[in-house]
Write a structure and sequence with these properties.
Length: 917
């Protein structure tokens, strides 16, 4: 005890109390776990809605076929009736199977996995059984539930479906009860082993706690006598009168205990560095430079690597620290700017930059992606790089525009001849055709100048920058433009990406836009004060809403531009509230919304004055706080944790060098056995359980994709087949009808592709999550063998690269012949419910086509994600194996005297000084 500091003695007591609490918690055994299990199962069964309207309808249809008077046809009716009954039974069976899967099986598996994780009772066999959990029943269950002689009625259908649902739930609970027994047995075994370990540790600590209490008792008595002595020395009158009683000592009882060879206390002798506390983060002012913060952390990583790279077992760790430093040194932030055409995106970007840099693009179809980037040695201030589209990409864009006019070019030269034929039809241009026609005309004017430059990157000056953004015959050939510009925004390490307006999202820029949504560090969406959300705005915001909650941070900011147009504060609040409600309606929960005027904000910065109406300061305060405090801290957090881990490892080495020879010899033997045991655990691991979870998650997510898309089917149908499109005003109604069908197929097909893109974001996060959880489980298993062995967090780096074509691109139009036949003329179509008949038939056709599309995409995604998970899992095991080997190499070297204690102390002091900066 004399060797322990006061702080270490306090830690000793805290550890003892913690062990006691853990033992008490385990005392409840499996009883509480069983109560929790049963409670959650009951919740799942209560909430499982197995008989929605469509499934009840299938049940009713089957019951109808069981009625004695039910017959099909006039000839050979018996066999036809049996076949029809069998078909209806099978439809009902397939329907209830699907509901059982989505309402019971998926939720049960999710609960079971969560329960195992919370209770720490996970093992490979249990995981495999959970992932294969199914509720087994045949169609015979449905047939047997029909009571002989029962008459078809609404009441009987309800009773019948309730009985079937209850029987399925009973089967599910029975299967879960079997799993519960196995889980509780595994939990009991774990708790028993833990109880033994805790009891051993507690017993080891108890003698030291008792000794500490005795020491405190003697210290208290000593303190009393010290005060008496001080009183005597002060020689006050009162003391003189009582001086003969001052040394009437109480009888002391004590026992002298000689040192033996007992176990050491479960508190390691600590070094001077407070290694168990995270290294304090820099206190950064609100508008501090995030780039500087990361460079400071990078410098710490480099110096730490230099200090420890010569130590045994630290070579790879030092290399990893240098790699992290390199990444932080070059880490920047990508901020993507979105918004409808004419929403004032360019003026907002200029206000953010503080100068008039970005010109306004005249046509969303010709707009290119512009990036304002930080300068560097290779690209000084004012450098412009322009990527001209590849010939294939340019032809694809031209043909997309030509499609509206029923033309197609085999080559760019062929497309030029097709465009010339359009000039005689300018009077027929509608709202959709006009921007596409403008794009084609711009292409025609610029083709001669750019035909030889397709696929190249041009280096230009800042004076030429505006032409490639705003002059249509140039901008339509541009894939992207990079402008290297020195300003406060870029000095913070920010690259501002000005994307084409949301108006063009449905066309050429869908995939590119989604990549920016997925990979950018922040998203800025600008809408205009007195513009309602367009259809393109709506679809883009819905896509933002789909993925918003999948990101680690809420990185979306929404601006209402030109707020200075409001006549008064009340009008401003009304518009702000309306936009807020619209964002929520389209799926963006808790939006960060800022009403502002980019023109006034730019005026503020140019004239260095304050204009409260600009509203820019509120946005910039929140934006830079996010960049500096959230993003930058997130970027350096893993590095700071790694620095803390290095400190703990060095402290552990110092502790090992202080042991006496006998202890060192025993520890060496223990470490060799420990290392072999840990490596055995790691080598036994396989990726199959994680892959199975990914497969099941993919299936679940895609199931709900279909549900969400078809919830909007009626809205899409009404937008495509509406009275303004199908008017009897002399137009070609057959062509108008075909165009309406094309629009419906494009819109729903696009919606499926967007949903699938959003699904990849969810799967990426899920793959990262389950891999991190798996590492935690492994660390806990290894911790039971050696609590001092720590691991850096594994980084799931392989983001899946996959894109999706719109559904129904190659669908056969003959499938819609029956549906299209319901249209005779506009009057009867809209007044006699023919549009409803057409809608129902199209729903049926597209429902089947959607299943085929989703099944194919599910197989593609499962194969790709399974392959990625296999590779990442291998990296995880290699990562942990190497860190295990290095840990024991360093400790064994310290025990063998390979590193002088003085050298380690010097390194530790250098680390302490470095981290205090």
């Amino acid at each position: 005890l004399n060797e322990l500091s006061a702080a270490e003695q306090e830690d000793l007591a805290e550890n003892y109390d913690k062990l006691s609490e853990e033992k008490n918690a385990l005392g409840e055994g499996t009883l509480k776990a069983e109560r929790d299990f049963d409670s959650e199962v009951n919740k799942i069964m209560t909430n499982a809605y197995l008989m929605p309207f469509e499934t009840r309808a299938l049940a009713e249809s089957y019951i109808e076929s069981c009625q004695s008077e039910f017959k099909v046809g006039w000839l050979f009716t018996k066999q036809k009736t049996l076949d029809e009954r069998e078909q209806r039974l099978n439809l009902f069976y397939q329907g209830i199977l699907e509901k059982t899967k989505s309402q019971v099986e998926w939720h049960s598996r999710e609960f079971l996995l969560r329960f195992l994780k919370e209770k720490g009772a996970s093992n490979k066999e249990l995981l495999a059984k959970i992932q294969s959990f199914n509720v087994h029943f045949s169609s015979q269950l449905l047939a047997a539930a029909v009571k002989t002689g029962a008459r078809l009625s609404g009441e009987y259908v309800i009773n019948y479906t309730d009985n079937v649902a209850n029987e399925i739930k009973r089967l599910a609970k029975s299967g879960l009860a079997e799993l519960k027994i196995e889980i509780l047995n595994a939990l009991h075994e774990k708790n028993t082993a833990t109880q033994v370990r805790l009891s051993q540790q507690s017993a080891s600590l108890e003698r030291y706690i008792t000794a500490l209490e005795q020491v405190k008792k003697y210290e208290s008595a000593e303190s009393v006598e010290q005060r008496k002595l001080e009183t005597l020395l002060s020689e006050t009158n009162e003391a003189r009168s009582d001086r003969f009683h001052l040394f009437d000592f109480e009888e002391e009882e004590f026992e002298v205990v000689y040192g033996g060879t007992g176990h050491a206390p479960l508190v390691q002798k600590k070094s001077s560095l407070p290694v168990n506390k995270p290294i304090p983060k820099e206190q950064i002012p609100l508008h501090a430079n995030a780039s500087d913060q990361m460079k400071q952390t990078a410098e710490k990583l480099k110096k730490t690597a230099q200090l420890v790279q010569g130590l045994p077992g630290f070579k790879k760790l030092a290399s990893e620290l240098k790699e992290k430093a390199e990444r932080l040194d070059h880490k920047g932030f990508t901020v993507a700017l979105f918004g409808a055409f004419s929403a004032g995106k360019s003026s907002f970007a200029n206000a953010l930059i503080g100068e008039r840099v970005l010109p306004v693009s005249p046509n969303p179809m010709t707009a290119a992606i512009s990036k304002i980037k930080p300068i560097n040695e290779s690209y000084p201030h004012g450098t412009v790089r322009v990527k001209i589209k590849e010939e294939r990409a340019m032809l694809e864009d031209v043909n997309h525009a030509l499609k509206l006019f029923d033309f197609h070019g085999e080559s760019l030269a062929d497309a030029m001849t097709k465009i010339e034929k359009l000039n005689g039809h300018l009077d027929q241009l509608g709202a959709a055709e006009k921007p596409n026609y403008a794009f084609l005309q711009a292409f025609t004017r610029g083709y001669a100048a750019f035909s030889e430059q397709l696929g190249t990157v041009l280096k230009k000056t800042i004076t030429e920058f505006s032409d490639y953004v705003a002059v249509e015959e140039k901008s339509c050939f541009v894939e992207w433009i990079d402008l290297y510009y020195d300003c406060p925004l870029t000095r913070s390490g920010i690259t501002l990406v000005d994307t084409p307006g949301a108006d063009s999202i449905n066309a050429r820029h869908t995939g590119v836009a989604f990549d920016f949504i997925k990979n950018s560090d922040a998203i800025l969406f600008v809408t205009y004060y007195n513009h309602a959300f367009s259809k393109a705005d709506r679809e883009f915001i819905i896509q933002l809403g789909r993925v918003k909650d999948s990101f680690q941070l809420d990185k979306m900011f929404f601006m209402i531009n030109a707020i200075d147009l409001a006549d008064n504060e009340e009008e401003k609040e009304t518009v702000t509230l309306y936009v807020h409600e619209q964002l929520i309606k389209y799926g963006v929960r808790n939006p960060h919304l800022y009403p502002l005027s980019s023109l006034k904000a730019l005026q503020e910065k140019e004239e260095k004055i304050s204009l409260p109406v600009s509203g820019m300061s509120a946005f910039e305060e929140a934006f830079y706080h996010f960049i500096t405090n959230d993003l930058a801290n997130l970027a350096v957090a893993a590095s700071e944790n790694e620095l803390s881990r290095v400190s703990r490892l060095v402290a552990k080495l110092i502790d090992s060098t202080r042991e006496d020879a006998a202890v060192k010899q025993q520890k060496r033997a223990n470490m060799v056995a420990e290392k072999a045991g840990i490596n055995a655990i790691l080598v036994q691991q396989t990726a199959q359980n994680l892959k199975n979870r990914l497969y099941q998650q993919t299936e679940t997510l895609i199931y709900y994709v279909k549900q969400r898309v078809f919830l909007r089917f009626n809205d899409f149908f009404k937008e495509s087949f509406n009275p303004s499109v199908l008017r009897d005003d002399g137009r070609n109604l057959k062509k108008a009808l075909q165009n309406a069908l094309n629009e419906l197929l494009e819109q729903i097909g696009f919606e499926f592709a967007q949903e699938m893109r959003a699904t990849t974001v969810r799967l990426d996060r899920f793959a990262e999550k389950i891999t991190a959880e798996y590492q935690i489980t492994l660390v806990e298993m290894i911790g039971e063998m050696n609590q001092d062995l720590s691991f850096s967090l594994f980084e799931f780096e392989d983001q899946v690269q996959i894109d999706f074509e719109a559904a129904f691109k190659n669908i056969q139009y003959e499938l819609f012949s029956k549906a299209m036949a319901y249209f005779k003329n506009p009057k009867s179509f809209f007044e006699k419910n023919e549009n409803k008949l057409m809608s129902d038939e199209m729903y049926r056709v597209l429902n089947t086509a959607a299943d085929e599309y989703l099944q194919n995409e599910q197989k593609r995604m499962q194969a790709l994600y399974g392959h990625v998970m296999e590779g990442e899992f291998g990296e995880l095991i290699l990562h942990m194996t190497e860190q295990t080997d290095d840990f024991y190499l360093s400790l064994l070297s310290a025990l063998d005297g390979g590193v002088p204690a003085e050298q380690l102390m010097e390194i530790q002091q250098s680390l302490t000084n470095l981290y205090k900066r």
